[in-house]
Specification:
InterPro entries: PilX_N_dom. The protein has about 100 residues and is of the alpha+beta class. The protein contains one helix and two strands, in the order H-E-E. Strand 1 and strand 2 form a beta hairpin.
Length: about 100
């Protein structure tokens, strides 16, 4: 090995192990980021699934409630026959949601 003098362009540099440390740290960070991104993607997917299930339950309850209201109005003693029974659409708005149904008599 040749000892390099300052500013000697012809000297052969000694091998260093600092390059290996950089590669090892980069590989470690790659592995950690792969594991972390997998957990983050799984958590995001579970959140979307739970949100969809909650919305489905909410809409199912609205539809069931509307059906119960229609059954009560049509089957009582003073049945409200003001509803069209010719399969014409009837709409009901609750909040920002509009439910459209058709009755056939």
């Amino acid at each position: 090995m040749v000892k390099a003098r300052p500013f000697d362009l012809l000297a052969v540099p000694e091998p260093h192990s600092s390059g290996f440390a950089l590669v090892a740290v980069l590989v470690f960070l790659l592995i950690v980021s792969a594991i972390t991104s997998t957990f983050a993607l799984t958590a995001w997917t579970q959140l979307k699934i739970a949100s969809n299930e909650t919305e489905s339950q909410r809409l199912g309850l609205v539809a069931e409630g509307l059906t119960n209201v229609l059954v009560a109005r049509l089957s009582g003693d003073g049945a409200d026959l003001g509803l069209p029974l010719n399969f014409e659409p009837i709409s009901c708005t609750t909040g920002g949601l509009t439910v459209v149904t058709r009755l056939q008599g």
